[in-house]
Amino acid sequence: MNVASESAEAAAVEGGIPRETYAAVVDQLQHTVLGLVRAALDHARRSAVAGPTLPSSTGRAPRADATLSAREREVVQRIVAGDSNKMIARTLGLSPHTVKRHVANILGKLGARSRAQAAAWLLARH
């Protein structure tokens, strides 16, 4: 558990929410997010035969050879983990603005329109 998760749990318990209830809600949320990412990935794989898997706003397919920097790969991994820009910034020791720029660069390089598409791209490659 990271510092933010511990802080959120402490605030929930302090607010009167039983620890078990909080844990159950977090587990359900993680399960739901994972299910959505898997569904997006399955859709992308099924669509691969018919055409581009992640069309960009320009209608072009994402570049299969898209090269992300080491830091951009770290950011995408945190996106897959479900972290917000603020959480990514804290985890990687960056400013939220820098993370926002990294996310924009990642989406541009991949031709993706959303963080979910970027996450699906990473999961499809591994």
Could you describe the 3D structure shown?
The protein is an all-alpha fold and about 130 residues long. It has one domain: Winged helix-like DNA-binding domain superfamily/Winged helix DNA-binding domain (Arc Repressor Mutant, subunit A), CATH 1.10.10. Helix content is about 70%, strand content about 0%. It has 6 helices and no strands. α4 crosses α5 and α5 crosses α6. The chain is flat. About 10% of the residues have low confidence.
Question: Which SSEs are present, and which pair or pack?
Answer:
Layout: H1 3-14, H2 19-47, H3 70-80, H4 85-92, H5 96-110, H6 115-125
Helix pairs in contact: 2-6, 3-5, 3-6, 4-5, 5-6
Instruction: Indicate the CATH architecture.
Output: Orthogonal Bundle
> Would you report the number of β strands?
0
In angstroms, what is the radius of gyration?
Answer: 17 Å
Q: What is the terminal separation in angstroms? A: 24 Å
What about the largest sheet?
A: none
